[in-house]
Amino acid sequence: MEIAEGHARSSQLGLMIYPPPNTFTTAFIAGPDVFSRQLHISDTVLWAWFRANEKALYRAARRMMKYYPPMANSKVLSFATTEFATECFRTLFIRTDANPGPVALGFRRKGDNGPGVWNLIEMQGATTVISGGFGSFPVTLQMIIS
């Protein structure tokens, strides 16, 4: 419990997640700063690329739909021309019982301007189970933000 208290005290930002009861939930935490940039490309070029790669795109989409089934078995495929980037992210798979407790996370930077990490903070008597996920990773941004 001392490690959890240390993470909580040294965190510069906190986040509480209140998952619904009797469910499996995937939480994707990004930030604290999230940036976006728009791909400026004409519809003509985008459609030409799509037609040239159509079979491979549909094959990849079907494969991903096996792992992440769409709601109501939707077969709609969308392309985004806006990219979102963050300096750090963490993914959690949360399993809850009938009376779930909250999940606490703390964000802490390494050094003054170094990358940050999201740390899971254990809470005493918690009944919510973190059953997996991806760790807190700094992300290298290949863009200049002014």
How would you describe the overall organization of this protein?
This protein is an alpha+beta fold and 146 residues long. It has 2 domains: 1-38 and 84-146, no CATH class; 40-80, no CATH class. The protein contains 3 helices and 8 strands; from the N terminus they run αβββααβββββ. The protein has helices at 2-10, 43-52, 54-67; strands at 13-17, 24-30, 34-38, 82-86, 88-95, 103-109, 116-121, 129-138. It has a 3-stranded antiparallel beta sheet, with helices on one face. It has a 3-stranded antiparallel beta sheet with strand order 2-5-8, with no helix packed on it. A hairpin with a 6-residue loop joins β6 (103-109) and β7 (116-121). The longest helix has 14 residues, at 54-67. The protein is flat, with a radius of gyration of 19 Å.
Amino- and carboxy-terminal Cα gap: 41 Å
* Whole-angstrom Rg: 19 Å
Q: Report the helical percentage.
A: 10-25%
- The backbone outline, from C-alpha atoms, is flat
As laid out across the biggest beta sheet, the strand order is 1-6-7
Number of domains: 2
Keywords:
23% helix; disordered C terminus; 146 residues; 3 helices; alpha+beta; three-stranded antiparallel sheet; single chain; 2 domains
Give a quick rundown of the structure:
With 146 residues, the protein is an alpha+beta fold.
